[in-house]
Design goal:
By secondary structure, the chain is an all-beta fold. The chain has strands at residues 4-10, 16-24, 27-35, 49-53, 57-63, 67-72, 77-83, 88-95, 102-107, 113-118, 123-127, 132-137, 144-149, 156-161, 166-170, 177-180, 189-194, 201-206, 211-215, 218-225, 232-237, 245-249, 254-257, 263-267, 274-279, 286-291, 296-300. The strands form seven sheets. A four-stranded antiparallel β-sheet has the order 1-2-3-4, with no helix packed on it. Strand 23 (254-257) and strand 24 (263-267) form a beta hairpin. The radius of gyration is 18 Å and the shape is globular. 46% of the residues are buried.
Length: 306
């Protein structure tokens, strides 16, 4: 199994998708893995399907039930698909539209479109059915670190870059990007997650270890906590009726916050940067994290009263 686990996401039925990279000689190679039984990850002997990619994998996301969207170190956005009763992963397309490493991908509501961001400072909107780029945006002056599509409105997405900008995009507008003020004391935003139930609410983490919760309808109302000592590498809301927010970091920790941003869970088991985080859709108290230490850890996080 490739050592450096970079990304993880559950499918609705509980199948776990993993993206990984490793240095082989002078070249980075990547791989994609699907486990029907997440508890067996990352043991490759128990995966239902897996494939090696030509370059490192920065990000992987499910697109519908069988599609897998990949951000590649080669500058490509790739779409793969499960086939043969989900025992094979086959390529649907590989498009080299970015000029540097693709750092982040995010399918949009409906699954027909997606957004990508890259070290080339560009954000691109894709039509996955037509296998083409619909728009290329140059609103960031430094590498793009994260893009996040609104889960209910396919016209909206957020992006963050090393230029310190956090941008809200609305594809319906002639000038689609508007800057969100993160305040003078905030570091560069590094990770973003939309609230699953409130379409105007989102969380973002920054390079200093802060996590903030912001409502677009209440611009002056921002909650902030510093649960980490190093850069936040991922955020994920749970599917609880009152969702919890999980955050991971280069400080090797995973933390869970309640809606008031009070800490309810912390784990420091990982021995290297924690790179992927997701909540199980079939066991609401299960939080899964993956790391460059080759571990896939399933944490049990209970809400008050459970």
């Amino acid at each position: 199994m490739i050592k450096d686990l970079d990304s993880a996401q559950y499918r609705a039925d509980g199948a776990l998708l993993l993206g990984a990279s490793s240095l082989s000689g002078r070249c980075w190679q990547g791989s994609i893995w699907v486990f029907k039984d997440p508890k067996m990850a990352p043991n490759e002997g128990y995966c239902c399907a897996g494939v090696q990619t030509e370059a490192g994998v920065s990000d992987v996301k499910w697109v519908s039930e069988r599609g897998i969207l990949v951000a590649s170190d080669s500058g490509a956005v790739e779409l793969w698909e499960l086939a043969e009763d989900e025992t094979l992963i086959v390529s649907r397309f590989c498009k080299y539209e970015h000029d540097d490493i693709v750092t982040t991908v995010s399918p949009q509501a409906g699954g027909g479109h997606a957004v990508s961001g890259s070290l080339d400072c560009r954000v691109k909107v894709w039509d996955l059915t037509q296998e083409t780029v619909l728009n290329t945006y140059n609103a960031h002056s430094s590498p793009v670190m994260c893009v996040a599509s609104n889960p209910s409105d396919e016209s909206l997405f957020l992006s963050s870059g090393q230029d310190g900008r956090l941008l809200l995009w609305d594809k319906r507008n002639p000038k689609p990007a508007s800057r969100i003020d993160t305040g003078p004391s905030q570091g560069t935003p590094t990770s973003i997650a939309w609230h699953p139930q409130q379409s105007s609410l989102f969380a973002y983490g920054d390079e200093t270890g802060r996590v903030s919760l912001r409502d677009l309808q209440k611009p002056d109302s921002v909650q902030t906590l510093q649960p980490h000592t190093r850069s936040v590498t991922g955020l994920a809301f749970s599917a609880h009726s009152t969702p919890l927010l999980a955050s991971i970091s280069n400080d090797c920790s995973a933390v869970v916050l309640d809606p008031q941003l009070s800490e309810v869970f912390r784990d420091g088991t990982h021995q290297d940067f924690v790179r992927g985080v997701c909540w199980s859709p079939v066991a609401s108290s299960t939080l899964t994290t993956v790391s460059w230490d080759h571990q896939v850890i399933h944490h049990t996080v209970c809400q008050a009263g459970e």
